[in-house]
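@channel sequence for tomorrow's demo:
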Amino acid sequence: MFGGSVIATKVAMFDVADYTGEIVSDLFGEDSYFADSEAFWTTQMAEVEKQADFYRDSGWTDVIIMARGAYFDSWDYERCPKKKGGKIFVTISHRGEVAFHEGYITTKEARQRAKGAAGADTPKPVRPEVSAALGSYVDLHRHAAVRASLLSDTGVALRMMVAHAIVGSPLWRVDVEKQRAVSDAITESVEVSASEAAFDTKRREVLALLGFDPEAPTVTGGYDGDHGVAGLFARLAALSDEAVMRILPVVMGETLAVGSAEVDYLGELIGTDMRTCWQDDAVLPELIRDKQLLGAVVAEVAGADVAEANAGATTKVQRGILVDCLSGSNGRAQVNGWLPKWFAFPPSGYTARGGIGCVERSERIAPLLAPAQVEDEPEMREAA
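structure tokens (generated this afternoon):
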């Protein structure tokens, strides 16, 4: 309704009566919501910071405001009272809910304290030099300056983007295409194809180039080193532009969605030749169950005369004719280089019934592939 998560007014830490942004109600008038999420978050976070400063002034060692959407997993923390240096961790959900978890330290910090506390008293909590508000001020200005600096260093920007795509971050989520099929036969057909073999070879080369586990199934998500995005960026910074450009197609290929318009667009733009990528197998004929469609395919492969002579035959018989033609069995001449119309770029169908996903997508993106019409410059039109 509003784009992104819907935020109800009941989660506001501030007085909704003083809120100047727009608030809307549901159809029954029972619940109300913030229409402008950006305005909500500005006001909500100001209240969070105000509450955090209150806790610090009350003697808490620190108040950790966690990234929006991060979870407070109890097994990662241990109870610790305020007088022994306990902290407050603040979780903020994407729906605007705020929770203050009082009196905790991380399990890592607890272990460090246990090691250093052998016979020694716990040190008195030290108040941080920089408050949350001041820290936010500093971080925002540093962020603004660095991203402005990126504008003049495209090589660094490219490597940082590749690192984000591979590792991910709180603002980047890139999923690997799972290539799920409805049957094991289809899965196997794709896995043993020439296309997959070629892609896997390049993927292995990139895994080696980046120093990843050679058995990792994908480059995307394959980094298991220290320091996350920054750690991988350090590796990329040591590579040449040519090497980084070899990584890009693999990451893009791993994250390219099956059945998307992007596949059709790229296939036509690059000029993908399916004849060099696909080889007929026993799987395709078994998937053609419709008699009208099967008859049209038989006519294309075996010829119109054969199709007409067997028009009244069962789909089993017609499928057998198709298999015989493709394999050169049972006295039929083998047909080589046949490519189903659906595989071409752009694709087409065998009947007028439609309902072909790749054809529909190809038709939608066709205007994007048409040559751009460049208008004459004003002075040229006047001269004409």
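heads up for whoever presents: The beta strands are 23-25, 32-34, 63-65, 77-79, 87-92, 98-106.
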